[in-house]
Write a structure and sequence with these properties.
The protein has 14 helices and 22 strands. The chain has helices at 40-58, 62-78, 80-91, 95-115, 154-165, 179-192, 206-215, 228-237, 261-273, 293-305, 325-341, 391-398, 414-423, 458-464; strands spanning 3-4, 6-8, 11-13, 20-24, 31-36, 123-125, 131-139, 142-146, 169-173, 199-201, 219-225, 242-246, 251-255, 283-289, 344-347, 362-365, 382-388, 403-404, 407-410, 430-431, 447-448, 466-474. The chain is globular and about 80 Å long.
Length: 487
């Protein structure tokens, strides 16, 4: 079986621990390869290497940094199908979604390559004569990027591309469930021309290497996508540095009585059961008007019952496996919890049979907004249906949880659409579409327990990985004091 070390200084090196762990195919439970289990010592080494590479890299003109990103996008495009098969094999999502994962990485690489020609600051008039005022963007320094397994190419690209084009160097820690995708990611970056030491990758358990990645004083920026508890720990341990957090969601689709139910059905099935519900933007709640609830439930159960479980690499599969055994156990725990809370199970509710980490798409009705299945992130193919009397009650229910990432409303009434846009507490709101599908030139992120105000992608991705520096050029030939010498 192939064995991978740590990628530090542009080469694969042995872990100081001498230990390795397997990456499993979640559809078969068979190992794919073995990966280095890094230690605190390895992380310190990677950070030191990234720090040493920083002066030369940040002095590369931003357009030239962008050219490297553009070459990386071309390599991804060239290997798109093989990369998609790797994503499907190691993570489990069906092939069309895996291709989308790769495409998202291509898109963000191309977009951020263009930012190398912009990295806009601002010019503004000074209040004094013969004085020029402007802002410029400067890199943070060494950045720790900690990514999850559910988008094993797209999310690393969302973080790495803006970090690099801004002139930062990187220590990248991928999920231990998808290290093969991460290994291929850094190999392609090196092939594209990213200099040695600019991107480094350390694999291994977060409990062992996470603290050093977060608290090391040489690290000036931390970007993390994962669960809320870990995000809270990062905030407490990072010290004074820039921290960006994306911490999940409990997203709602509102379906009003004037909605196109056929369109809403497609959105709910895709939002709830695409990627087997393993997306921070997954639709885990449907808030439906009482007038159409029964009709919609019948449509939804009929469609959901026809979905086929199987390996993501199988073209006939509709819903792939969960990522690991713990995920299956967690989803089933919430199924049993929902039943004990008094919710009505309409379909699903059981783990798959035989090998693989499968779970049947599960739908609960008669769910109260106060039930835990309606409030806590399950991160699997589990959907709660909640009834509402109208748009105002639906918005109130949508806002009754601690998260605020994505949201959706299906309605033909433009006034109801704008009430939802203004009233829902979320970073993203869709009208007549599902809760997922981010475009890379627009900001992505949430409010409340979903994050700390950071946004990824678009111009906000540049803001996350750079600092604003204010510059004054006084060519008056005399001392001028703002707010004092203004008369």
């Amino acid at each position: 079986m192939k064995r991978f070390g740590l990628f530090i200084g542009g080469k694969w090196v042995f872990p100081s621990s001498g230990k390795y762990f397997p990456s499993l195919n979640p559809a078969t439970e068979k190992p794919i390869a073995r990966f280095a289990s890094g230690s605190e010592h390895d992380v310190k080494h990677a950070i030191d290497v990234a720090e040493a590479a920083l002066p030369k890299w940040k002095n590369v003109p931003a357009p030239k940094r962008g050219q490297i990103l553009l070459k990386f996008a071309g390599l991804l495009r060239q290997d798109k199908e093989s990369l998609a098969k790797l994503v499907s094999t190691e993570m489990g999502k069906v092939l069309p979604e895996a291709r989308g994962d790769v495409q998202e990485a291509i898109d963000i690489a191309e977009y951020m390559a263009g930012e190398g020609r912009r990295l806009f600051g601002h010019t503004t008039p000074s209040e004094l004569q013969n004085k020029f005022a402007m802002t410029i963007r400067v890199p943070l320094g060494v950045c720790s990027l900690i990514t999850p397994w559910n988008f094993p190419l797209a999310i690393p690209a969302w973080k790495t591309m803006p970090a690099l084009v801004c002139g930062n160097t990187v220590v990248f820690k991928p999920s231990s469930d998808t290290p093969m995708c991460a290994a291929r990611f850094v190999e392609l970056l090196a092939k594209a021309g990213v200099p040695k030491g600019v991107v480094n990758m350390v694999t291994g358990p977060g409990e062992q290497i996470g603290k050093e990645l977060v608290s090391n004083p040489k690290v000036r920026g931390v970007s993390f996508t994962g669960n809320k508890q870990t995000g809270e720990w990062i905030v407490k341990n990072a010290g004074i540095k820039k921290v960006g957090l994306e911490l999940g969601g409990k997203n709602a689709i509102i379906i009003l009585d004037d909605a196109d139910l056929g369109l809403a059905l497609k959105g709910v099935v895709w939002g709830a059961f695409g990627t087997a519900g393993q997306r921070c933007t997954a639709a885990s709640r449907v808030i439906v008007s009482q007038e159409v609830q029964k009709e919609f439930e019948k449509m939804l159960v009929k469609k959901t019952s026809s979905l086929r479980l199987g390996p993501g690499t199988n073209p006939s599969t509709d819903v792939g496996p969960l990522i690991n055994k713990k995920a299956v156990e967690k989803v089933h725990y919430y199924t049993e919890l929902g039943l004990s809370e008094g919710a009505k199970l309409l379909t699903g509710g059981k783990p798959g049979k035989g090998k693989g980490f499968f779970y049947e798409p599960t739908i609960f009705s008669e769910v109260s907004p106060k039930m835990r299945i309606a409030r806590e992130e399950i991160f699997g193919p589990s959907l709660s249906i909640i009834s509402a009397s109208g748009v105002e009650e639906a918005i109130k229910i949508a806002n009754s949880i601690e998260y605020g990432l994505s949201s959706s409303i299906y309605t033909r009434d433009i006034s109801n659409a704008f009430r939802a846009i203004e009233g829902i507490e979320a970073g993203i709101t869709y009208v007549n579409s599902s809760t997922i599908g981010a475009e890379v030139h627009l900001p992505f992120g949430g409010v409340k327990g979903t994050g700390n105000g950071a946004r990824e992608a678009g111009i906000e991705g540049i803001n996350e990985f750079s600092e604003t520096k204010t510059v004054y050029i006084d060519f008056s030939g005399k001392l001028q004091r703002a707010q004092i010498d203004t008369d």
